[in-house]
Design a protein that fits this description.
Helices cover about 10% and strands about 55% of the residues. By secondary structure, the protein is mainly beta. It is globular. The N terminus is likely disordered.
Length: about 900
């Protein structure tokens, strides 16, 4: 990887030198664009070279020529970045449905200082980006807005539903509904609070921004080379506005189906064993070493409706967005059951089955357990979970904003709306079985080699399928997230005779609710069959096996048998069926009200400097509801908790957030920027009131919420220089420093719990949230964009971020090195792009009471658009062309946690625009 970095650096230096030394590229744009182009559009004179069918289109009203295409998008993005008073990045999409990537997170990952995240620490990585990290801060410390207002979210994965964070799930939002986005890396007083790392503002499509009568239809077929299935993806948009350009209506809809398959090896937790093998040493061993096989079909559908009026005095915007993703999935894990035998069967004596082992730096890195103990008793070395989930997530927003230009100098604006998201697991049911077998394992790089002595090699044989039944578990989870919000602003423009340009004051109110309601089930069959062969894997087997190419490129684990979903449901319908009841220990709710007021002055001299200074005051009130078996009022008694009751805790606090931004024009195309602001981000909802969750197999869990948690608070500093030395060209350097006064982290500890599978009780290793002492994040960014010869161009950026907690501890989400390298080509016929994204290792969070790291990861994506006519284009897109895999580890890379292969994904299709 070091060699790769040096090669890319050398290439970048050479290209920069060539660009500076070639005056023909820059002479035509030596002067600044003092009259910025319309937001989201680029003027025809801003495009080098000839303009082809996809780059020039006459407005139906006549007169205006709207230049489109990749290079026009780059120019429009740079124009908007240049005009901003804040340190920011911008992406615009000149053509409908031609956003650079498949969802918004993909596109954000191309920006300087942004990392994409495919899954939480507990969930691991899937084949679609879902959240982002800005300058190495955790996704929960970033704020996402839609047209400047809040947007609720839902999570489809059961663990993320239980984690109840604040980060937005971008997998819900396809690129078709987004016209542009802004990433703010500094703050100002009129920007809603919540983004310590930064704030993303997504702009939905508006009818007055498009030519009247615009109709766009896009159809593609998607193919994943692991899932080996073709699935359809279609979208359409219709936009109209009147001849005067004062009123317009827009409607858009989309339907996307996509099949996922993830092969992997997972090590689910580690636990310490004192006096291991009678040596007197404390040795840490893996709990479970699993060969995991995940399958899912995601169906994303929804639409957008927007009405827009823009008169001389009044502007009105009404819009609604709805998106839903059905995400049913099957997750199977056949595991070496080390936690069952490492303690009970490794001590010298009649129960000993340990034949050999190796300890490296305190970890049990290899071990062999015989099929029977010294006294001849069988040991249980393998366990399998077949888990079936019916899940979905959805988000909808209804928003109205009004702007009234009372006079030439006085503007009054207001906004109100409601947004609701739901993450729901409509049903989860699991079938857990195990075998009498010996087991051996040895860590080997990113995986562990696992073998089972005494287990039949034919997974379809009766000897293999006639195993022991352990337990069936599951239930239903509903996690709604909603917010009612309102905003009012007044802006007064000062006379044009001084450095005070305007004063802006305003306020904002939000009422937010987030809850999680869990209904678990009991099944009489658990009591009848657990620990016996009355039922087993053979009972629910219908010929299903892992595929012939399963785990190729991971560790080539042998194929194994799978439970059938319908047969599992049928068996669970016997013995009285599943009995559902409220499970209070895994439920919670949080209500949060915020009131904010701000005042901000915009300053400048109409020549060489501009900026703003202001302050925002925010009051937060939270009410957290938890369920406890020791509550004084037993008002939540169910079959799962005979003594449970509710515990309500209230908390409130004020934050005063000053900010200042300054931009100085050294010369028309050379800008210096500086900013300072105090910023804050509130704790995640589950961190405030989350429930206790336990893993009976691994004896691990999470300890629930802490309703008295304080926000993450920090001072944010930026200083940078931006040189717009040519059309579609930029060279910039930015320094940043984040002085973190307090942040939220996790602590680990042991607690004793009685559960259905442990009626006598057991010690569980738990992790829970606490306020850390603070820390800092410092670094720099370099961004270079340059059109080359004959329609070619390059975009490259690099970010160095060094985040440390006080005392030298690690801060989650921090990759020290991030870079993007994009090459593009565009002419009359063809538009093509090849993009490589890299981020170095980072700690993704705490999983099963242990820190989990994601290793270095780089991905190559590409896209081609071929213009058949002015109205018709053919498209080809690809993600993860190099078939890179995700590797997670604990502590250091020699102690693996998970290794996943999500395969490559391709899209082919066509786009029609009228």
């Amino acid at each position: 990887m070091v060699t790769d970095r040096k090669g890319i650096l050398a290439l970048g230096v050479s290209l920069i030198a060539m660009s500076v030394a070639t005056p023909s590229w820059t002479q035509s744009t030596a002067t600044s664009n003092s009259t910025p182009t319309t937001e989201g559009k680029a003027a025809g004179s801003d495009i080098n070279g000839t303009v082809g069918p996809a780059q020039e289109r006459g407005d139906s009203d006549g007169g205006e020529i709207v230049v489109t295409g990749l290079r026009a998008s780059i120019q429009a993005s740079l124009d908007q970045k240049r005009r901003s008073d804040m340190v920011s990045e911008v992406i615009t999409a000149q053509d409908i449905g031609k956003f650079p990537d498949k969802n918004v997170a993909d596109s954000l990952g191309r920006l300087t200082g942004v990392n994409v995240v495919t899954g939480s620490a507990n969930a691991g990585g899937f084949g679609e980006n879902s959240s982002i990290s800005i300058r190495g801060t955790d996704p929960s410390l970033n704020l996402t807005l839609l047209d400047g207002h809040s947007v609720a979210t839902g999570d489809w994965f059961v663990i993320d539903q239980q984690n109840g964070g604040r980060s937005f799930d971008f997998s819900l939002l396809p690129s078709e509904v987004v016209g542009s986005l802004e990433l703010y890396k500094s703050s100002q007083a009129d920007l809603p609070e919540g983004g310590v790392g930064g704030t993303v503002n997504l702009h939905s499509r508006k009818p007055l921004d498009l030519p009247s009568g615009t109709v766009t239809l896009t159809g593609q077929a998607a193919y994943n080379d692991l899932a080996e299935k073709w699935t359809p993806q279609v979208s359409g948009l219709v936009s109209w506005k009147n001849a005067e350009g004062t009123f317009g209506v827009l409607g858009a809809a989309f339907y996307q189906k996509r099949d996922f398959r993830r092969d992997g090896q997972e090590i689910l937790g580690y636990a310490p064993y004192t006096n291991f093998a009678g040596t007197g040493q404390t040795v840490t061993a893996p709990n479970l070493i699993g060969a995991s096989y995940f399958r899912q079909q995601r169906v994303r559908k929804g639409g957008l409706v927007a009405l827009q009026y823009k008169g001389d005095k009044v502007e009105v915007n009404l819009n609604g967005i709805y998106t839903r993703m059905d995400a049913d999935n099957i997750n199977v894990n056949s595991m070496a059951w080390i936690s069952r035998i490492a303690g009970a069967n490794s001590t010298p004596g009649p129960n000993n089955a340990l034949a050999s082992y190796k300890v490296t730096d305190g970890y049990l890195t290899s071990a062999t357990f015989n099929p029977t103990t010294a006294s001849g008793a069988a040991i249980q070395g393998r366990v399998q979970d077949d888990i079936f989930r019916k899940a979905f997530s959805s988000t909808w927003v209804a928003n109205a904003d009004v702007t009234f230009h009372a006079t030439d100098s006085l503007t009054i604006s207001g906004e109100g709306g409601y947004t609701k998201g739901i993450g729901e697991t409509k049903d989860t049911f699991a079938w857990e079985t195990y075998w009498d077998t010996g087991v051996s394992y040895a860590f080997d790089g990113k995986t562990a080699d696992v073998a089972y002595a005494g287990l039949p090699t034919d997974p379809t044989s009766q000897a293999y399928l006639n195993n022991y039944y352990s337990w069936s578990w599951g239930g239903k989870i509903k996690s709604p997230d909603s917010e009612l919000y309102g905003r009012a602003d007044v802006e007064w423009k000062a006379p044009d005779n001084g450095f005070l340009k305007s004063i802006r004051v305003g306020g904002r109110y939000t009422h937010h609710k987030r809850s999680l309601d869990y209904e678990a089930y009991s099944w009489a069959g658990n009591g009848l069959y657990s620990g016996t062969k009355g039922v087993g894997l053979g009972t629910v087997f219908d010929g299903g096996l892992t595929p012939g190419d399963y785990s190729h490129g991971i560790n080539d684990f042998p194929r194994y048998s799978l439970a059938d979903q319908d047969k599992t449901l049928a068996e669970l319908a016997t013995n009285g069926g599943r009995v559902f009841d409220f499970y209070p220990q895994a439920s919670f709710s949080v209500k949060e009200n915020t009131e904010a007021a701000y005042a901000m002055a915009n300053l400048g001299n109409d020549n060489d400097w501009r900026g703003n200074i202001g302050v925002r005051a925010v009051h937060t009130r939270q009410t957290s509801l938890q369920y406890s078996p020791t509550a004084p009022n037993q008002n939540a008694v169910t079959s799962f908790c005979a003594t449970c009751g509710t515990v309500e805790t209230k908390n409130s606090y004020w934050d005063i957030l000053p900010s200042a931004n300054l931009t100085y024009n050294v010369q028309p195309d050379l800008l210096l920027r500086g900013s300072v602001a105090k910023v804050m981000s509130r704790p995640g909802y589950a961190q405030l009131a989350g429930a206790v969750t336990l893993s009976d197999l691994g004896l691990t869990g999470t300890a629930g919420g802490n309703p008295k948690l304080k926000p993450t608070r920090a001072w944010q500093y930026n200083a940078g220089v931006e040189w717009y030395y040519g059309k579609q060209a930029l060279l910039s350097v930015n320094l940043f420093y984040l002085d973190i006064q307090s942040y939220i982290t996790s602590a680990s500890f042991t607690r004793f719990y009685v559960t259905q599978q442990h009626p006598q009780g057991a010690d569980f290793l738990l992790s829970g949230p606490i306020n850390g002492a603070g820390g800092r994040n410092q670094g720099f960014e370099v961004n270079w964009q340059q059109p080359l010869w004959w329609g070619f161009g390059v975009i490259a950026n690099y970010t160095y971020a060094d985040a440390k907690a006080k005392g030298g501890g690690t801060i989650d989400g921090n990759s020290k090195h991030t870079y993007n390298l994009t090459g593009y080509f565009e002419n009359d016929l063809l538009s093509a792009r090849l993009a490589y994204t890299f981020r170095s290792k980072f700690r993704s969070g705490v999983d099963r009471a242990l820190p989990m790291w994601q290793d270095d990861f780089g991905q190559l994506d590409g896209s081609i658009l071929l213009h058949v006519t002015k109205e018709v284009a053919l498209t080809v897109d690809a993600q993860n062309l190099l078939n890179r895999k995700l590797f997670y580890f604990v502590g250091n890379p020699t102690i693996p946690r998970a290794y996943y292969n999500n395969g490559r994904t391709f899209w082919v299709g066509a786009k029609v625009t009228f």
